[in-house]
Amino acid sequence: MAVPLGVSVTLIGVIGDLLSHTLNPAAHEQEELIVFGSGNNPWHLVLFAGILITAIGGIRWASRLSSEFGPMLGAAMVLLLVATIALGSWSGVQAARESHGETASLASDTSSDSSHGGSHGVQADPAAAAIGEGAEGESHFGAEHGVAGPSTDQELMIMSAQIAAARAATARYRDVEVAKADGYYQITQFIAGLGLHMDNLKISNDTFDPARPQILLYEPAADGHLVLVGVAYTFAHVNDVPPAGFAGGEDVWHFHTNLCFLPGGSVTVAPDAAPCKAQGGFFQKETPWLLHAWIWKSNPDGIFAEYNPRVA
């Protein structure tokens, strides 16, 4: 009886897995193997349960055979089952360690990134005239908000799920034409370490939704086409308290000052509004809260660090 039941459960797991891949292929692009505790695909657990039930039924059947071959077959199947469970458990532990290790390292990365007096930034080119040449302007953190906070294991798990949701939702934007069709448009030139920013004003910045980033970050490939490397979130800057954002304390939000967004999709630093408006630009004295998330190109300084040295 166990064997037919196990086969049925296995087939249900296979059908569910096939349907989930068909209906949402992007969500399964980086899918792990069937491991305990991965939480990557619930249908994998159903599939594994079916295999386990079938194996137990097979062992019982083999042990009841009247020939001497029966007990030997049953023992061999027991060894294979134990090895499968042991390997699956070990793989799950390794996957969990890798995930927790990556997120845990963010605390020290963001802490060191923001421990220089509560602010950091890029210097404008002194040779520039009224409008300074440079990156996105000077990054400011309130002194009490510049250091990453602690995260519990539960918060790290939630954060991992939020990052997965962000990847699934933005996978289609690896084609920049799809991003443009959905309302994203270029607001900065490519800036080493920060990427080329494409903003979508149709996405509200009054709430935080990991699956709806207001900004996409790209870098040019050797052949000139744009490659999606990360996303960024904006949140209305109404006071000095940054938004909650991702679960835990790993994400450190920031904002910029004195930015001049010029026609044609580039940004510079301006001392005030007058020289910016003289060039037909839009002057922003203070930006909303911002958070970069390098979910499509790993960042050695941490997934939420503002700068990514690998984007060059």
Separation of the first and last Cα atoms:
61 Å
Largest sheet: 5 strands, antiparallel
| Proportion of helical residues | 25-40%
Rg, Cα atoms, Å: 26 Å
Low-confidence stretches: 26-32, 35-39, 98-146
* Beta-strand proportion: 15-25%
Categorize the overall geometry.
elongated
Order of helices and strands: HHHEEHHEEEEEEHEE
SSE layout:
Elements: H1 2-23, H2 42-63, H3 69-113, E1 119-120, E2 139-140, H4 153-170, H5 176-181, E3 185-186, E4 196-199, E5 215-220, E6 226-235, E7 255-262, E8 266-269, H6 273-278, E9 282-286, E10 289-293
Antiparallel strand pairs: 1-2, 2-7, 3-4, 4-5, 5-6, 6-10, 7-8, 7-9
Helix pairs in contact: 1-2, 2-3, 3-4
Describe this structure in words.
The protein is an alpha+beta fold and 312 residues long. It has two domains: 2-97; 126-293, no CATH class. 38% of the residues lie in helices and 15% in strands. The protein contains six helices and ten strands. Strands 1, 2, 7, 8 and 9 form a five-stranded antiparallel β-sheet that branches. Strands 3-4-5-6-10 form a five-stranded antiparallel β-sheet. The longest helix is centred in the first third of the chain and has 45 residues, at 69-113. It starts with a helix and ends in a 19-residue tail after the last strand. Mean pLDDT is 76; it is low at 26-32, 35-39 and 98-146.
